[in-house]
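[job 0417] fold request received: DUF2087 domain-containing protein
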Amino acid sequence: MITIDKTEFINRLTQLCVKSAVHGLPKRRRDRHILLKSVTLLFDPERTYAESDVNNTIRLWLTSVAVRLDTDHAAIRRALVDERYFARDRAGSAYVRREPKSATLSFDRSVESVDVVSTIVEAMKVIERKRREHAPKLTSG
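[job 0417] inference complete; emitting structure tokens
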């Protein structure tokens, strides 16, 4: 079984969300699960959510974390249910976060402590600072 630790999770999440542009969810299973796990970190595992709350939180994730991911909230919500990160009631109106059982992939418990929004905001600041440092300097004269 492959276990993704906090360092790998943060590094790969940053790569996927800030440094590359992805159309839809990635085909690579590991990357797909890293993105989906990052969405779930915005939800309380002890709470039941209405579909509208799930949609709003996913939209927040798309605009503040997955800034370069080309997809919509409905596709992400569907993937969260399909990959068993969320259980949905029969009516499709109530959602509960859960940990999917996989024989091949898991996340270290330390991943639960990652603040995905702050992680991406900080990564974007670092990239912008490096961009400014390497930009040609204009001289007046």
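[job 0417] notes: The CA atoms of residues 64 and 121 lie 8 Å apart. The chain has one domain: 2-134.
[job 0417] exit 0
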